[in-house]
Structure formats: structure tokens, C-alpha cells
Design brief:
Helix content is 22%, strand content 37%. It is α+β, with helices and mostly antiparallel strands.
């Protein structure tokens, strides 16, 4: 695997519960052998913690093959080992990933971690002619946010060196368009702050 993935192997990325509850496209889960689903609470390239299932009873050190669903990212199956259990959650170590699993985990973690690095730019840096309300930047990425008088996000534009992507409130998106999945993952990491990003993302519709 690329060295950049190795460097972030143990970086834990929490799944924002509020955003996941708004739409399964913004959450992540595992499917157990009995077809029960458990939300993923946090994950890294090495493993993840999930909510304990109601019926299936995994044992410590047990090796299982589970279906992994990372929302907008392609689903895949992976071999995992049960590392620890308690009354609320279970810790799983990833033992083996298929090629599509490597790709999916890499995209998911890379964009989530980049989103966590975004910092707000102070307003005194804004050009007086600009109409956006907020500006975030980090790792060569710029995010601009336009809001109405009621405090609702109307437009978000993400600018990178190689592309610019814009999302309009209530718009329908093609998840197969270049950059769409990556930018949604990036923006989901802004949903934990005071900016109503989660509410905005929930208005977006994905083509099936």
C-alpha cells in the first residue's frame, strides 16, 4: 500500500452519529453472519469499533468475514478478528482486505482526515467583494460556504488544485461523477461544528 496510507494506519476517524441518522449514505456499518447490522462508531485503516449486535454474539479472538458498508463508498467483504468486547461495543481488527476494500478504505479515511484538518479563515482575510459567509482551508483545499439570511447553507464550493466542485441546496447528485464521493466525505467532517453542514448534506439527493 502507498506510504501515505501506512502513515495514517492508526488514525481513528469517528462516524458522526447525527449525520449518520439523517441518511445511511453518510454513515458506516458492518453486517454480521446472521445479517444483523451494527453501526461503525469509529475506524482506522487497521480496524474499527462497532455497536454490539443484539443477537449475534462474537467471541474474543474469533475470526469472521463481514460485509463492510462505508455509505457512499463501495461496499466490500473483509476478514476481521474480534479484539475486545463490552456491553455496548466490539473492537475489530482488519486481517485481510480485497483490492476494492483497500481502495474504499483509502478513499474514506483520506477524505475524512483531510476534512478534519480544515480550519476557518478569519474574516479580515476576505476580499470585500466576496459574498460567501465562511471560508475553510487546509492541505491545499479551500471550502467556501454561502448562507441565506436565516442561517441556512445554500451553496458550498470546494476548490482543489485539480478540480472545483459545487453543491447547491436540495440538488440531485450523481455519486459516480468525479470528486462527488470524496467531497461529501470531506464535508461530513465539518458537521461536528456549529455550521449546519449536516442539515445541508441531508438535503442533497443521490441518483440511484
Amino acid at each position: 500500500m502507498p506510504s501515505s496510507i501506512d502513515q495514517r494506519r492508526y488514525a481513528r476517524v469517528p462516524i458522526h452519529k447525527k449525520l449518520a441518522e439523517l441518511s445511511q449514505e453518510f454513515g458506516a456499518s458492518v453486517t454480521w453472519p446472521n445479517l444483523e447490522e451494527s453501526p461503525i462508531r469509529d475506524l482506522s485503516y487497521k480496524g474499527f469499533a462497532v455497536t454490539r449486535p443484539g443477537l449475534f454474539q462474537p467471541r474474543e479472538n474469533e475470526v469472521l468475514e463481514l460485509a463492510i458498508n462505508l455509505g457512499l463508498v463501495v461496499s466490500f467483504r473483509a476478514q476481521v478478528r474480534v479484539v475486545w468486547t463490552n456491553f455496548e461495543a466490539i473492537g475489530l481488527e482488519v486481517l485481510e482486505l480485497p483490492p476494492e476494500g483497500h481502495q474504499a478504505m483509502g478513499l474514506f479515511l483520506e477524505q475524512k482526515l483531510k476534512g478534519r484538518q480544515l480550519k476557518p479563515v478569519e474574516r479580515f482575510h476576505f476580499d470585500s467583494k466576496q459574498t460567501f459567509r465562511y471560508w475553510y482551508q487546509g492541505d491545499g483545499i479551500h471550502v467556501f460556504v454561502w448562507m441565506d439570511s436565516g442561517g441556512n447553507i445554500q451553496t458550498i464550493r470546494i476548490e482543489r488544485d485539480d478540480r472545483t466542485t459545487s453543491f447547491e441546496r436540495g440538488s440531485t447528485l450523481d455519486p459516480n461523477q468525479p470528486g462527488v464521493r470524496a467531497e461529501i466525505l470531506l464535508l461530513s467532517e465539518l458537521s461536528s461544528g456549529q455550521l449546519p453542514v449536516a442539515e445541508f448534506l441531508a438535503t442533497l439527493k443521490m441518483e440511484s
